[in-house]
Amino acid sequence: MSNHLADPAAVGAAVFPARPEWLTLSAALADEVPVIADRDDLLVTIAPGAGGGAAACFYPGPALIEVDGNHLKVDPATVDPADISDRTRYPATWGALTHECGHAKHTAWDPPDDAPPGVVDAAMLLEEARMEAAQIRRRPDDRHWLRAAAKDLVADDLHLYADPATAPQMTPADAARAAALLLGRADAGVLTHAEVAPVGRVIEDVLGRDTLDELRIVWRRALRTADDDGQTMLDLGRQWCDILSTDPANPTPPPAANGDPANGTGAPPTGPSPIAEAIATVLDTVAANVAHEQPPEDPATRAAAAHAREEAARKEAERAARKTFRPGGPRDGRTALAGTRPPKPEERTAARVLARALDTAGVRDRRAVRTTSVVPPGRLRMRGALAADAQRAAGALPTAEPFTRITRTMTPTPPLRLGVACDVSGTMRWAREHVASAAWILANAARHTRVPADTATVIFGNNVRPLIHPGHTPSVVTEFQSNDNWEDIPTAIDALDGALGLATPGAARLLVVVSDGQYRDQPRAEGQKRLNRLRAAGCAVLWLTTSKHDTPLDGAHVHLLTDPAATAQAIGRAATAALRASR
Length: 583
Known about the structure:
The protein is an alpha/beta fold.
């Protein structure tokens, strides 16, 4: 049986903290384990000498976890386990506690009294990796702490440091035990295969590849076994014994101190065996890797940081919108407009067609709702009527509702927020006429549709200029130049977000970018951050370009325009799809 999973019949050691700090810390740990173990009946004792001879131990009978305070390495009076950042001062102890919480949650089976000791020993050996795999599936952040405790837990189970005479030797039993505890943890996802590779090679030398492959099949089946399926675990334990030709009634191999089977002399071992050295190397490597890993963050801290980042991004977007869409617009720098012209008849027609399409997309569905009642109107259900009669005959107040009727209600129509940003660098001259036309068509379609719609269009180059202001229906088409040598796409996205609320739920939101994506590194990286934020908030992103060799930002839905004159139609189809998807 595992050195730190006690006999289910055991009641725990009578360990009384020698100092009041240990009693206080025991109570503090008991307050934390309900979340880790998903049960609220666990007691915790931490004190020097607790743990049943291991770093920690779980007693299923009294639902007690004992932790050896000698492994804490810090003053218990300074420990605050409720503070996740404080746990980094004693990661191995917290990992041992987490491991025992995993047993408390996931080792939900007890071996029967008549089970052969060798089978039980093998099943409990397989339980170590199986339980940790289940724990990190349920709580992925616990992987860090289980890794931090791996050195102490595995060393305890293998008697690696306690006595050189009992350390693992080059025997099949010791090699198999090391395989289950280390290679099994790698397959469980706690350790990595690269970390356990050194001991894996030595284990294969001892067992042979065929035997190791057979054992690997067994422990991998254990990893897929349910928490309460003790029968399967015992069956796997029997298979383990059969593969190793172990006597199920006598699981303990002869003590290594009586002789070293590896040298065939019968003399006591003169130093660490190759497998013991490999195990120590692996455990030291894991401990060193854990020391350089980022520990899990407090969910509350993580949420607060995410909220702060979102708030900062929102304020930055609002500042960009105020600067871009202020009366008169920005007047400094390049990125020039080129005057206005009256809309063409075909543009007026396109605006009306798009308005009808948006109306169709925004038609509210009628949703059927089935309700029951004691009295009409509605369809009489005889079962309900008989039930009501029976209740009256029994002198009870009738609760049956025999009448059923269906009512149909209209689902709410989502508003549409559509922002368009057009690149006006020198390589984008093809888009000038088509985007100017599309911007006018979209703004006028929004005025005529019954769907609440708001659109805005900006051009971006060395600066960001408004082409269509939010909520404004222009009477003329505004044209622009395309001669810039920079692409300020981050500010363009921020301006549209701040003006239209593209990152705010509650509407069908669409950002359209017309560009070849040929940006410098800085605006590209910053623009990608903005685009990722909008997509994470549920805003659809359409990228219009004319060449398959262009380089749009990652995550956008790219549409290749074979006919640039169809820019307005492409945007209209995307807006219609966004409305339908949000209903």
